Amino acid sequence: SADFLGKVDKSSLPQQTLMELLIGGFEHPEKITDSYGSGAPMDISEWDEVEVDEDGQVTEIRWDWMVLRGTLEVKWIPSTVESLSIFEAKLTGTIDWGALPEVMRELTLHQNEIIGELHVTTLPTTMEILDVSINKLEGTLDLENLPPKMRDLDLSFNNFHGTVCLTRLPETLTHLQIDHNGLSGTVDLTMLPQGMQQLDISYTQVEGETDFSRLPRALKLLSVQNTTLCGEIRKTPDEMIDS
After folding, report:
1. Own/partner long-range contacts of 118-124 (Cβ < 8 Å, ≥24 apart)
2. Tens digits of per-residue pLDDT, 68-110?
3. Which one, of 153, 162, 161, lies nearest residue 133 by Cα?
4. Distance (Å, rounded) from C-alpha 112 to C-alpha 97?
C-alpha cells in the first residue's frame, strides 16, 4: 500500500522493486519493460535503455522519445544511477530535487510538462549536467549555489522570473542557457567562469547598461537578442555575438 511504501527504507528494497515503483507513475510502462501485458515486468537488465553494471546495479537510464506520460517519482531511482534522461515523454507533476541519487552526474528532462520550482541547493553535489529546458518550471533562480562541478545547465523555455546573479557561478561551468524566461533586472557579466563557452540570456527582460569588457576568452557564443541590454563589445569575433 502507499502507506506501507511511505515507511519503507529505500535501501532495503531490491533494485528490481525500486525500478518497478519508478515506472509505476507512468501511463505506459510497457514501453520500457516490453512485457506486453504478460504479467510481471522482465528483469531490469532486459528493460529498454537501462544500463546495469557487473553487479546488476542500475547506472544509467535513457528513456528518450517514449511517450510515457504520468509522473516521475524520483525517490524510487536506485541510488547507483549516475545518469537519467527522459525527454519528450509528456511527464507532468513536480520533481523532488532533494531525492535524486547522491551520485547522479547527469539529469535530462528536456521537453516535458514538469511544474514547480527548482531548488538547486538540494541537487546532488556530483551533478555536472542538468537540462530541464522546455517545461513549466517557475519561481526564482538561485545560480549562486549550484553544485560545484556543474558544467552544462539548460533552464531555457520555462517560467522562471526575477533577477539572476552571474557572479558566483561554478568555475567548471561552460554552458549556461536561461533564455526564454521571465527574468528581469540587470546582469553582471564581469565575473563569468573563465572556461565559459556559451551564455544565452536572450528573450528575457534583462536590461540596462552592461560591462562587456571582461568576457571570458573561451566564450564562443553570447546570445542577448530580444533583451534591452546596452553597452560596448570590443575585440570580439563577429560570430560570437547573437544579438
Report:
1. 118/155, 118/160, 120/145, 120/146, 120/147, 121/145, 122/97, 122/98, 123/97, 123/98, 123/147, 124/100
2. 999 999 999 999 999 999 999 999 999 999 999 999 999 999 9
3. 153
4. 16
Dihedral of CA 156/157/158/159: which sign? positive
Given CA atoms 22, 28, 33, 35 in this order, what sign does their dihedral have? Answer: positive
Q: What's the CA gap between 189 and 137, in Å, rounded?
A: 25
What gap in Å lies between CA 206 and CA 189, rounded to an integer?
A: 12
- Side chain identity at residue 207, one-letter code: E
Report the pLDDT value the prediction gives residue 1, as an integer from 0 to 100: 47
pLDDT tens readout for residues 5-21: 555 678 889 999 999 99
Q: How far is CA 129 from CA 55, 59, 60, 153, in A?
A: 26, 16, 14, 6
Joined together, the cell numbers standing for residue 110 give 528536456
Is this structure's pTM higher than 0.85? yes
